[in-house]
Amino acid sequence: MQDFKFLRPTSLAEAVKALGADSNAKLLAGGQSLLPVLKLNLAAPSALISLSAISQLGGIRREGGMLVIGAAATHAEVAASKDVKSAIPALSALAEQIGDAQVRNRGTLGGSVAHNDPSADYPAALLALNATIVTDRREIGADAFFTGMFETALAKDEIVTAVKFPIPARAGYAKFPNPASKYAIVGVMVAQGPGGVRVAVTGAASCVFRFEAAEKALAKHFGPDAVGKLDYPADDLLSDLHAAPDYRAHLVPVMTQRAVAAA
Amino acid sequence: MTAPNTAAPSIATSGIGAAVKRKEDVRFLTGKGRYVDDINLPGQLHAVLVRSPHAHAEIERLNIAAAQAAPGVVAIFTGADMAADKVGSLPCGWGITNRDGSPAIEPPHPPLAHGRVRHVGDPVAVVIADTKRRAQQAAELLAVEYDELPANVDTARALAEGTPQIWPQAAHNVCFDWELGNRAETAAAFEKARHIAKIDIVNQRMVTNAMEPRAAIADFNAASGDYTLYTTTQNPHVIRLLMGAFVLNIPEHKLRVVAPDVGGGFGAKIPHYAEEAILTWAAGKLARPIKWTSDRSEAFLSDTQGRDHVTHAELALDEHGKFLGMRVDTIANLGAYLSTFSTSIPTYLYGTVCAGCYATPAIYVNVRAVFTNTVPVDAARGAGRPEASFLVERLIDVAARQLGLDPVELRRKNFVRPNQFPYQTPVALQYDTGNYEATLKLALQKADYAGFPARRAAAKQRGKLRGIGVSTYIEACGLAPSAVVGSLGARAGLYESGQVRVHPTGSVTVYTGSHSHGQGHETTFAQIVSQYLGVPIDLVEVVHGDTSNVAFGMGTYGSRSLAVGGSAIVKALGKIIDKGKQIAAHLLEAGAGDITFENGKFTVAGTDRSKTFAEVALTAYVPHNFPHDRLEPGLDANAFYDPSNFTYPAGCHIVELEVDPDTGTVELSNVVAADDFGNIINPMIVEGQVHGGLAHGIGQALLENCVYDRDTGQLLTGSFLNYAMPRAADLPSFIVATETTACTHNPLGVKGCGEAGAIGVCPAVINAVVDALSEYGITHIDMPASPERVWRAIQTAQRRA
Q: Model pTM?
């Protein structure tokens, strides 16, 4: 690990300013992705800007037909929240499957969303639930937010403050975990919401994506049998020691079917 | 002075057979353990190893100038510096003889690579600075230029024409070509066979991954010339001997090796490692203590790894399913260098166990061991025996399926029967005792084997493929009779020492050459003392792990601590009791021959005249009236115990599981282990050891796999992100039970239990997976039976159908 400056601003404005002032600075939320990378010397930021002293980033609340979760909410908080359990139980279930207890106690929604790891669970939830990402300066729809592997629509000095989830009629998440890391090899979130059925897949490709054929089939008939026979092409899917592209492709409809069954 | 008032011993709750809670757990559970990394010496420096990023390369230039100038750097040493100081090669402890009578190739293993690096992680320099951080920063400034060479990491490919040569003296990368058993007789048995079952198996490479990474601190006292090494080892005396005599030329009396609390070993903390020699040598150079602690990434690249066999085997059977002969052809990967025990594992700890618990009359085993550009291979829980039991127990299942026989019945038909003991196998071992039918029967009952078809049918209704797998394994433990292993090439004896020191007030300190790194010796050994001397367990302290206070020791591996180390303590206890009788005889004015010792009391036979153990102990140290011409003061005895045979734990493991055909996921439904460990001292500790072993074996069967890139030789599974260790959630609650046939040749009648789980369960898991997949015509799947591998096997079978 290389030396770095450590900043702990107490306001969002201060954090944005610090981030804008140093192009090699990194935001530190729960640190569950960033700290291992630092320890392995795979990144050497000049400064870490901790978000832990900014009180407005926390909290989970219902606002009309929306569930609003602060960026600093930990996975454990989301998993245990009564509001989440009553509004979107599938989201609570998803949070409960992230990493292990230690990761869930430190890792945050905002950190996961901004990092956009291709195998992270939350991006599937945001995309399927048609969530809106709230930042220090604007709101961004999930469809426009996740732009590529570890890439998002966030500006260099932009900070995620909350995520707004429209409460769906029903939703389900099914995850096929990597046996070693427990990241998603394929994770599928299915939601039937105000805007129709949305199906989002994480882990399979370089970035979370919508499984449109499944969405169409489920719009006609929302049941596991509607998607079980679908095919998904293996082209452009990820490959690693635990799953080659054809296996991932096979798992996409299988996990979609299971997500529907869980919804 | 009067005898102290010690509580009456309660042997029922602390002696042999009692499930005493572990004495050592208070310190472990409250964070008070003292591991090597917890030790800090005044003025200590910190070492960081610079390791090769390449699998195979010439070191062209090594420029230390920039690193040397970095803040806090005290010294940088390279392989050239050590060579200039005539530092020796890390020795291999076992000489293997080739089929043609020539010795195995034993290439040099300099602690710091010199000239050429042979695996990713091979150390090339050590940077020593005043803090670890500064040592790390300086290490990054060390400029090493390499000229990369083609590499090979693949076991089977090592022998092929055109494969890169790791050592010039080892043609086709062969370290040795070894055989055991009678080739001609086995060939004749195959001539007569009605059926021949065949199997090709890969026993994959494992990373041992003890919870505590390796660490060492070396110190040198310039005034006395004494060296001290604190190290995470399973066998401190062995390290002292190997490093002192072969590498650094330091005589034993000037070298102290301490293995304090060690957080798991599993075989990877047996070998004498380069870092131990580098630190000790450098501490001498600098006359300052030096500390090194491996991180997990470094452990993946420098701890010895396990298994890594490619095997073809065949079983010949007659028309009734009786085994006529077995032949085994194995290629064993030893890595880039020979680690301490490396050569003995695929030979004498593997070939000798290929008989299993079956009366196969003719067996022939041929093992070719090869060098590759990988981390050296050494012991990993079971060491050779898991490879053998996996092979034998899989091959029998293949035969059963081929012949349409119940795999249980086929095993039963071929067991060595109780009336055949002692049973001489065709592969060198003589089994002293056992009852394989008893553990089989127990396991079948615990697993409700008879009810399986109904459970399979119910699973089918849920869309799951249910399978059941049986393994009736045997292992050779209690390493080992020195005469036997010596004749087979071991360069050491494998006895153990035990010293019992009774203090004036009747409390007892036991010094054992065994080492506990999680097994619970401090409790088990204390129970033995409690049983024999009748003192409460709280008055017994077990000391291990320090060459300065333990006479000698060969350490802990091969499930030897109790069978060999415990027996040495029993022998010393016998001497204590004999001496106590003499003292009691003196006090009671009787002949020593008339004194009996029972329940902590010395009694004149047939009278009520007695002395307590504490009274005798006190008198031993306050000998005011002693007949000094025939009785020495003191009550302290040391004993060495050399076993006359290996011990042979055996048993039956049954695994039931379900395969999800849509994903390939294997979910364990039930794991039953019915084992015969001989007599049991502490059933709770035994159960814990079995649980750990089962987790280890299930890890190999379903999850773990050490993978190197075939082209670059880079370790692809260099962290827990990619290397899948078993977690609690991957395992069901185990059902464990025991049957007992007491070992016939050690005083406790014990056999050992630490490795059984890892040895017995792998084939049961894979037999169950294959059983679940049998409707697709699948006859074998390699470990780990990962979801993708299972799914792919199903896809391939469906395409074939």
A: 0.96
Q: What is the DSSP letter of B246?
A: I
Q: Between vectors from CA B660 to CA B656 and to CA B661, what angle results, nearest 5°?
A: 120
**Yes or no, beta carbons of A181 and B721 under 8 Å apart:** yes
pLDDT tens digit string along B312-330? 999 999 999 999 999 999 9
- Which positions ≥6 away from B71 have C-beta within 8 Å? B134, B137, B138
Does any CB of chain B come closer than 8 Å to the CB of residue A251?
yes
∠ Cα B374 B377 B381 (to 5°): 140
Report the alpha-carbon distance of residue B47 to residue A22 in Å, rounded: 34
Closest CA to B207 of B156, B121, B277, B266: B266
Taking residues B96-104, what's their average pLDDT?
97
Substitution target from B132, B133, B663, B715 for chain A, most A beta carbons within 10 A: B663
Give the pLDDT score at B9: 42
- For residue B222, give the amino acid letter: A
DSSP conformation class of B702:
I
List the 618-677 stretch of B: residues with Cβ below 8 A of A.
662-663, 665
Residue A219 CB contacts under 8 Å (≥ 6 apart), including other chains: A196, A197
Tokens of A230: 């679908």
Strands A66-70 and A60-63: antiparallel
DSSP conformation class of B267:
T
From residue B701, give the alpha-carbon distance in Å to each of A50, A112, B356, B694, B784. Answer: 43, 33, 19, 10, 5
| Phi and psi based region of residue A63 (left: phi greater than 0; alpha: psi -120 to 50; beta: remaining) | beta
Query: Measured between CB atoms, does B723 come within 8 Å of chain A?
Result: yes
Choose among B246, B696, B502: nearest CA to B511. Answer: B502
Is the minimum CB–CB distance between B191 and chain A shorter than 8 Å?
no
Give the minimum alpha-carbon distance from B662 to chain A in angstroms, rounded to a whole number: 7
Judge whether residue B95 has pLDDT over 80.
yes
Q: Give residue B488's pLDDT band: very low, low, confident or very high (50, 70, 90).
A: confident
Three-class SS of B197-244: EEEEEEEEEEECCCCCCCEEEEEEECCCCEEEEEECCCCHHHHHHHHH
Match 């091959």 to its residue by tokens: B395
**For residues B365 and B354, what is the distance between their CA atoms, to the nearest angstrom?**
8
For B612, list phi and psi in degrees, rounded to 5.
-75, 165
pLDDT in tens, B713-751: 999 999 999 999 999 999 999 999 999 999 999 999 999
Distance between CA atoms of residues A122 and A102, nearest Å:
17
Mean pLDDT of A18-25: 96
List B335's β-bridge partners, or say none.
B371
- Strands, E, within B619-664: which ranges? 636-641, 650-660
Distances (CA, A) of A56 to A84, A113, A161, B454: 19, 18, 8, 58
Each residue's pLDDT tens digit, A220-234: 999 999 998 999 999
